[in-house]
Design goal:
The complex is a heterodimer.
Chain A: H1 2-31, E1 42-45, E2 48-51, H2 88-104, E3 128-129, H3 131-135, H4 138-145, H5 149-159, E4 160-161, E5 172-174, H6 175-184
Chain B: H1 3-31, H2 38-52, H3 62-85, H4 102-113, H5 129-158, H6 168-194, E1 204-207, E2 213-216, H7 221-230, H8 251-275, H9 279-306, H10 309-312, H11 331-344, H12 359-371, H13 380-400, E3 405-406, E4 409-410, H14 413-439, H15 453-467, H16 482-512, H17 528-560
Antiparallel strand pairs in B: 1-2, 3-4
Helix pairs in contact in B: 1-8, 1-11, 3-4, 3-5, 4-16, 5-6, 5-7, 5-16, 6-7, 6-8, 7-8, 8-9, 9-11, 9-12, 9-17, 11-12, 12-15, 12-17, 13-14, 13-16, 13-17, 14-15, 14-16, 14-17, 15-16, 15-17
The chains are: A mainly alpha, B mainly alpha.
Amino acid sequence: MKKEILSAIKLTVVLIILLMVIYPIIVWGMAQFTSGSGNGQTITENGKMYYANIGQTFNDDKYFWSRPSAVDYNAAGSGGSNKAPSNKEHLQLVQARIDTFLIHNPDIKKSEIPVDLVTASGSGLDPHISVKAANVQVKRIAKIRGVAEGNLQKLIVSNTEKPLMGLFGPERINVLKLNIALDNFK
Amino acid sequence: MNTEILGIIAMFTITLLLAIPLGQYMAKVYAGERTLFDHVFNPLEKLFFKVSGINSKNEMTWKQHLVALLTINLLWFLMSMLILMNMSWLPLNPDNNPSQSADLAFNTTISFLVNCNLQHYSGETGISYLGQLWLMFLQFVTAGIGMAAAVVIFKAFKEKSTTQLGNFYDYFLKSCTRILLPISLVIAAILLIEGTPMTFNGKDTIVNMQGDTVQVSTGPVAAFVPIKHVGTNGGGFFGANGAHPLENPTYLTNMAEMFAQFIIPMAMVFAFGFFIRRKKFAWMIYSVMTVGFLMLAVPNIIMEMKGNPAISAMGIDNSLGAMEGKETRIGAAASGFWSIVTTVISTGSINSMHDSSMPLSGMNEMLAMMINSFYGGVGAGILNIFIFIILAVFISGLMVGRTPEFMGKKIEAREMKIAMIVALAHPFIILVGTALAAAFPSVGTAAISNPGFHGFSQMLYEYTSSAANNGSGFEGLGDNTPWWNISTGIVLLLGRFIPIIGPVAIAGLLAQKKFIPESAGTLKTDTATFGVMIFAVIAIVAALSFFPALALGPIAEYFSM
């Protein structure tokens, strides 16, 4: 038994060196060769730095809105609402979001609102919306900014991220990138 | 065809195709045959054994295996309690996160020690980087423990009649160095390219486009996330786990992480076949597991893609599916698929919030953990299915009036008693835990965050996840309280070590027995008929023990909607 304890201690020490020290150093070393050097992918615009993969709150009428978030897009934390599909309180909240959306977008029919715009994401930091969710906001933004709807649609098309290799996964739009493009649109 | 469906088919196919060669490689590693990376690993392992004073050629009996296994686990337990309760003043704590309380540290320690990774804290606020790296260490070594225990069973059926079942430290170390570490490095490279951070800087503060000031948590994420999946651990670096856009930034990383958690449990089955030179037997087990897996996964994909009927009724465009708790870049289909992969194989990482899954999807997630052997966790899956195989052999033997034999060994009363204890312990700890929580509202129902039947599901899920060493949760449950920390901690311990000790003991006892050559009277165990028998045993054990509880939770919720 004493021999087992000593072996266990020594083996643990060498494994700590391999798995807790050398392995993360190798991964850290590899990170130095990637874009962002392991600090995450960032976008710098007008001297301000943003994380490309972390969603932001967009609720101003002149921007494309993000999805609702259970953590208000503060990436100090993360998480979803964890509300059950049968939860009455949750369903009332979804209904309220639909009503708010219709007030801000009076030219839109209720049946055009895609579900991602009225439900909170799992992380609360979802940087994307669906293509439908961008298209349904075009009328509002065109009116406020005085831009032709056709131009906004082109902007959406050029910012649509295609499925992986054109085959796997959903199409989506990074809201931050789309809104930066929108601000730069002349 | 729909790109979301294609993505799932691709993930499943790639994993299966690579699981077969990996299984062959693993069988060679454990048999001590020559493999590709010998010139790197041979000297390294030699050095490790020399330093530790271990003779890796020294074969052990099943009891010696268990003594070595439990001793090293006890050591890690003590070290872990020390680290987690003192993180606040130890180095690598840029965010000044606090140390964990004794009950939380107990829960965290046990849950990482048993390869479960139930987390009653959030990674952003509840742990330092040192703590994260320590947990990452546990993610490697506990996966290695599970695999080493499974190899004892491999070995027991390879030899005709023996008490010597190989060296525990040899199996354990090779699992870490030759299997877990290389795959983790490959996955880490993919994550880094796709934008997962790997930094020791603390939280960053930025001003958003609309002018809000927010913080962004980062850390050594790209080292942590690969092994959390490869070792089927599942603990998230961040609170949102695999749904977090820094842990899982793109559809490609989602596929890579899915592959990472799926590959070893699948390969382990093939490794068994290669190791004991009975490939047909491995394919039979694989088929049973795959049929069971698809019976749970396909309905979940469909239900999640169909979306919440209560939201459809509001008259909006619900065609994206049940998007509450899901990420746009992953989509409803891949979220539904992942929800079953992660529960059948005891990973417990999530890429969508299971609490917001549709009622019957939630039921399938729980069923996957209640059965816990459709693939199952690294090593643990083999141990669990082994118990069902023993039960199936015994029942079939009785049905046709023959002495039950498995791989040339007679199965007698002693082995059957152990198998029954292991098979019944799982429902026992789940249902007793849930019943106690439900009986004392001040600690149990006080923690639930959804009313009605779903609230009961939240409690049932927590104990199921603990007993299956899964680690996912219906995360609305307010579970960082002494009651939940300690009660699930106990369930976790029993749920890990009973299914290791039982099967290893059975294998050890069988290995000692005289080998009886196959004859016309032997029950064939590599046939489809026997596969159906195993499936029936699993269905009866799971359905009979858990159906009443499921009826009170998800089934009642479904009918009330």
